UniProtKB/TrEMBL annotation:
Domain 6-phosphogluconate dehydrogenase C-terminal: 178-467
Name of protein: 6-phosphogluconate dehydrogenase, decarboxylating
Name of the coding gene: gndA
EC assignment: 1.1.1.44
Phylogenetic lineage: Bacteria, Bacillati, Bacillota, Negativicutes, Veillonellales
Record NCBIfam families: gnd, PRK09287.1
Entry coiled-coil feature ranges: none
InterPro entries (alphabetical): 6-PGluconate_DH-like_C_sf (IPR008927), 6PGD_dom2 (IPR013328), 6PGDH_C (IPR006114), 6PGDH_Gnd/GntZ (IPR006113), 6PGDH_NADP-bd (IPR006115), 6PGdom_BS (IPR006184), NAD(P)-bd_dom_sf (IPR036291), Pgluconate_DH (IPR006183)
Amino acid sequence: MKYEFGLVGLAVMGQNLARNIARHGFSIAVYNRTPQKTKDFVANYGDEGTIGGAMTPEELVHMLAKPRKIMFLVKAGQPVDDMIQAFLPYLEPGDTLIDGGNSYFADTRRRCKELEAKGFRYLGVGVSGGEEGALNGPSLMPGGTRASYEELAPIFTAIAAQVADGPCCSYVGDDGAGHYVKMVHNGIEYGDMQLISEAYFMMKELLGMSDDEIGDVFEQWNKGILDSYLIEITAKILHVKDKESGKPLVECILDKAGQKGTGKWTSQEGLDLGVPIPTIAEAVFARGMSAYKEERVEAAKVLRGPSATFDGDKKALIEAIHSALYASKICSYAQGFALIKAAAHEYGWTINFGDMALLWRGGCIIRAVFLEDIKRAFTNHPDLANLLLDPFFKEAIETHQDNWREAVIAAKRYGIPTPAFSSSLDYYDSYRRGVLPANMIQAQRDFFGAHTYQRVDKEGTFHTEWEQQ
């Protein structure tokens, strides 16, 4: 027989995605560089559907129906290029290769161009949802030629997470658009996680609440406007106890956060395209600061902060932290969508932002109820310049901003670091002002470097000999 789909790479994500495909009735052939891993996978999961194992790239290609569809789930970077080269000698024009890893979008653009010039098709597909999502329904963000996507659509839409509005999968745009959107998704994920950690830290350090108490708060929050996967798992984490000591397990975890680079890529893109994304960037920097554990321990012995302790209304501050989390989250998503909008213009992509919000409504790590509000905003106003200008989100910020400010003020007064809360508020305050102090910066640039400036009262470009005035 000939199999409908091929999958390369049998780490946990690859295994779970292959099982998902097989469970939905599509025949699949799999390959891993380690033959024993392929044999074990077929032996363990072969009864979940029509699954075949290949011992070499050539064998996998010959097992597949034409035009062939082969998905790679391997480490980003050179391993993807190496795998492409391993398969190319056995492929024919019209065959499709799919990269389902966390590849850098520029690499995907390059590979699309190179392979399409040789008559092949190439898709860069962002896959979000982790191991559980891969098995039970991920969010899929496909980029490449539309014709390439249409051939894969029956499989992708079947295995994706399903929500009321449909599957969390639809065509994003040409070449690297899918991986770009996945990159920004991960950047927003960095922001979300940092914002949640700041809310947790304020309740713990400022209000002296126990982990169980904080977990109860997050459980309540998850029943309202903050309903999301990350809030849900945060509540669960806070209630888990270490089996050896009986302490909350989260308190046994070293405060050094890892990162794989997608948040950094997002921040770099913001700089390259001149799009301010401070919440996301500060979340990346916060992880960087956490890595300085030894230095921080030494600094804590000599650097002093405020000595006062909070003696105000505990319930009111919890409400303020809730508002700060919600309003900052809106700003983080506004920044992410603004970056994608700028990238679409820069790279020639046509992206439906309402559909894109739907991609993140289920399956992925940042899935949240309020993505429905984002979808509605872009459906009503496809050319919306910034999410903050949508009537729903404008009202939401107005409703919560007083509390938001109180939370940030309290954090600063008592020395609690909240880089994502603070930068989100600064983003909002900067965006809402028609006048910023950049006139002083431009005057300084003209003073020391003759960089010139424009005036508010007349057209043209001007330079002043400042020392002679």
